[in-house]
Amino acid sequence: MKIDLNEIWEFMEMAPEPLQANQGKSWIYELIAGDIVIQNLSSRDIQNLKKEENYDTELLPSIFTFREILWQPNVYTQPALCVPQLSILKVFCNDYVESLKQSQNEEVWLYFDLLNGLSTYCEEAIDSINKAVKTEDIRIPSILGELRRKSFPIVKFFIFHPMNRRDYKTDALNRLNYAVKIMLTQYNNHYYDLRDPYWKVTIGDSEDLLKTNKYLIASNSPSTEGKDELVPIDIQKNNLHENS
Asked: Taking all residues of the chain, what is their mean pLDDT, rounded to a whole number?
């Protein structure tokens, strides 16, 4: 079943144990954030999101609010202006993931793929700009529009993270709504291109979750390594209001 991002808490409070729980069955969660699919999340993994010690409130400003490349219009019009900002964000994400790995805290592994994905999108944008410079066919709005489209579900996940500061959330949400307006009017995107992050909930074997957690702790690596390839996700119409 599909559950909206913020409705997961109500589901976890109200949902009974799945049938055959006494036979090792449990709820299995997937986080779908655009093209990024984080599989085999347990109820404990979801609850860990609400642990204050597991979340850095400065993360949202660092990956979005302070990164004007993701929301400002008519500022980054030339490659010489875009590439340094994209590189800074890419390096920040890489360094942050590395610091999470060094902490050896298995309760934060959910963030690995999200930040790695944002880093990858920055790298793709840089590569596209560099190639365009060589061909003298530089379409910055198209490149930044693609970057913002792919980053949208990641940014929205962190905006609605349960441990965010309320003022940070409000500020970022205002900028995201502004960014969407620019994406639709100037950056060659359509409303249906923007995908909300959501949860997919199924019933699976608890043993699979234990294997996943042991693998992640042992390898100290992002959760998609050693798993099935990602499959295309249907485009979901989204709602930008704060109660989405």
From this structure: 82
Q: Which two tokens stand for residue 18?
A: 């799945």
Of 39, 239, 79, nearest to 152 (Cα)?
239
pLDDT in tens, 55-65: 999 999 999 99
**pLDDT-derived band at 223, boundaries 50, 70, 90:** very low
Q: H or E stretch including 157?
A: helix 140-159
Q: CB within 8 A of 137, min separation 6: which ones?
A: none
Cα–Cα dist 19/168, whole Å: 40
Asked if residue 121 lies in contact with residue 237, where contact means CB atoms within 8 angstroms, the answer is: no
Residue reference for tokens 């409070």 = 13
Name the pTM for this structure.
0.81
For the four alpha carbons of 160, 123, 177 and 65, in that order, the dihedral sign comes to positive
